[in-house]
Amino acid sequence: MSYAVGALLNSAVPVEVENGVKPIRDGYKWRLLLAYDGTHYAGWQYQLSPPTVQCTVEKALIQATKLQRKDLCLVGASRTDTGVHAWGQVAHFVTPFNYDTLEELHAALNGILPSDIRVREISPASAKFHARFSAKSKIYHYKIYNDTIMDPFQRHFAYHSVYKLNSAIMREAAKYFVGKHDFSAFANASRNDRVIDPVKHILRFDVKEMGALLQLEVEGSGFLYRQVRNMVALLLQIGKEAIPPDIVPHILASRDRTELAKYSLSAPPHGLCLVSINYDESHLLPPQGCPANSFGRHHTIRKCKVPFT
pTM of the predicted model, to two decimals? Predict the structure, then answer.
């Protein structure tokens, strides 16, 4: 592994710990862009059994950097739930040393990680960048395969609806979610004791048809626990024409999870994917003296001499 100790890129790197944020001196911060198939994982958040994505990534980082978990302080942007996938998850970690190049670390991590988790990019991060707190918006896709027979190649990544869905009515209903609302009615009880603001800003909610596949795309400032899956579940009922589109503002106004439960249950996790996270551009500026971003590298074959004349 190639690294060099030099002038510090980040003095007093802020690192999240269990009871808040504490500064770590003499640290360098690194940003990871991750993709994973969440089928066999109990979500992102760290726990040893059953395995989570964070736990698996940390084990790879420990092996590649020779540091301990408490030193790496890995933080993810979104705590995706059990069975949920990601194409654009972002995380950051810190090291006490600087790297000359990130390509070797990148190759090492993907060599250690199982094939259902990939590091798409590694880049140096400034001291003020935080994978979660610097995020301005997140984009999720929920895929629904709407045909009588399920495509077996989509079975792990799309929910199968044998009911013919009215996409135009779903599109009309989705518009009611756009804007700033109290989404208490669309949130399951949180898994932790943090006080969470139930008011979220939904920037857009699109329903796109791609043959038999319906793709629901939602972008928001943030989301409550299972909020996206609960919104999708209601849209599925509306798409079946079991309830009218204007039920959405009624449930939003109730701010009561039991009101939503009268009409729908949460949609299954395997149709959901975290696609991308948008950040404050000023937080993405690289620090001085840092190595270039690593996007992976292609292997090449050296030309050999023809064994005859």
Answer: 0.88
